[in-house]
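Q: What would this complex look like in 3D?
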Amino acid sequence: MGRQDRADYEWVFRAAFPRVHRTVTLVLRDRDRAEEITQEAFLKLLQNWRKVSCYEQPEAWVRRVAIRMAVREVARESSRRSREQAARRPQSPAEPDPGLADALAALAPRQRAAVVLHYYEDLPVLEIARVLNVSESTVKQHLHRARARMARLLTEEAGDRVD
Amino acid sequence: MSIDDRIRAGLTANADFPAPPVERHLEVVVRRHRRRLPLMVSVVLGAVAVLVVATWLAQASREGHPQPAAPIPPAEGAGTTLPEPLNGPGDPGLLPAGTYRYSLSRKEIRDGIVTWAPPRFAVANAGAWTWTLGGGRWSYELDLHAKETPVGFAGNTCEGYYDVHGSEVDFTTVTEYQVGDCASKTWKATWRQVDDGLLMDVTTDGRDLDFLFGAKTWERVGRPPSTPGRPGA
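A: Here is my prediction, written as structure tokens for the whole assembly.
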């Protein structure tokens, strides 16, 4: 890798790492694990730099890799314990909106990712479909179901607070 | 608050809150990231170094004497001293005020500066450039070919002042972006009028601006508005 390639890679790393890390943190609800996964994704970016550096948006490539890894990680976690347990795990003191984080954590892995990409990253459905490697209609279905479930959970949470 | 707004606000709050001071933390991450890479990078660099040395030695022995080192490109700004920044519009001189346009494709930029610029530099700069000059103020708007500006690059509009003395122009950029620069802080160029517009030649700045600014004839497309941009206003 030449000096210019390294400088170019470092540029993308510095510019895109914080954003990708935040997105993955939202999906995983685990800041440290999210950092490891984001680093793994950037390592893959480096290994494929010759090809990916020619793309218009290398950061979109690394985000896609990181999100797919995060989804797999959530699925692995979910197989170890039920999602309800995951949703009830102790809240991180760093979460200013734990109710929202709990509701998100109660979703299926791809639904979580779809919600984060749609509401936080503001990506269009087509792009979310590419990231998750599913069809557009599947993304719409994920978003529809996730939205309904989160609405229910957040309403219950609001009710609990009133009680 | 609708459920959509509720989700959006909650995600934004949760995403932004846990981030430690980004730059400081990023330094830690970069260092850790680097520690994981040295073997791979050093192997690649070592292989490249061996290849370069072997090629050089082979060529030198073939011709019986060492080859002179390749000329080192001049450092940025080495040609002429950078002009002092202008605090307001300078003398417009005889430089014809007006609106000028030229287009640069990614291929043209890659072919012109590929040896040193990152690949996304071409993506971030390919498009139709519209410059407006008049009354000592300049501005440009870049209609980008790409759908969006690549991360790490400045936006697509820029403004500043200029000061003409003879065939030379001093430029100062006023617009600032949080990320990247839309032009150098100051630079100097010579100008020449041609049939359909202007020819510019940067005499101070790095090769990027020299190419983006001076590779093509600036085709005149109109007279300037009465106030061509108000930098700093």
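A: To summarize the key features: Residues 3-162 of chain A form a domain with the Butyryl-CoA Dehydrogenase, subunit A; domain 3 fold (CATH 1.20.140.160). Chain A touches chain B through 49 residues (CB under 8 Å).
Q: Very helpful, thank you.
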